[in-house]
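Here is the promised in-class demo. Please do not try to memorize the tokens; focus on the logic of going from shape to residues.
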């Protein structure tokens, strides 16, 4: 008995789970692991808060709390099913690619035009042959008539009529 081939799919853990960072060497990050978007907000938030301190200092600790909440809020952010960095990288790739596209990893270019150099000859058509002459030609050619089945049948009938006479 022949076994049918089945379809096998193998997904690695990296494809099932998003890329996260929770450990640097032996140090475990508190409240981790963190996605790349969380790491950007976690690192960029204090820089932004320090640079804009004059604007929000009257609000007390509210901006700092909002920063920490935003770190938590961006944990599952996706753009068209991708994490924001992959989506950004795809957008940059689309903007910077060659307008003609790529074929086999190289920029697609139009081939240089070439001229067709073929020759042809026009000859006059051969003169039409009448039906009795075609049968005679067929009889001379060994009894096999060229053309349609009717031509062969008539050629055979003509040959049988001569044999009977």
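The designed amino acids, position by position:
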């Amino acid at each position: 008995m022949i076994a049918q081939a089945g379809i096998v799919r193998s997904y690695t853990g990296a494809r099932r789970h998003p890329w996260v960072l929770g450990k640097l060497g032996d140090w475990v990050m508190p409240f981790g692991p963190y996605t790349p978007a969380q790491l950007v907000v976690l690192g960029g938030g204090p820089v932004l808060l320090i640079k804009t301190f004059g604007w929000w200092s009257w609000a007390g600790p509210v901006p700092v709390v909002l920063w920490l909440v935003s770190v938590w809020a961006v944990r599952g952010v996706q753009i068209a099913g991708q994490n924001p960095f992959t989506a950004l990288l795809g957008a940059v790739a689309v903007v910077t690619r060659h307008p003609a596209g790529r074929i086999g990893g190289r920029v697609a270019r139009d081939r240089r035009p070439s001229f067709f150099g073929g020759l042809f000859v026009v000859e006059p058509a051969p003169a039409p042959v009448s039906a009795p002459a075609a049968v005679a030609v067929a009889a001379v050619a060994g009894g096999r008539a060229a053309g349609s089945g009717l031509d062969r049948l008539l050629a055979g009938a003509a040959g049988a009529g001569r044999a009977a006479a």
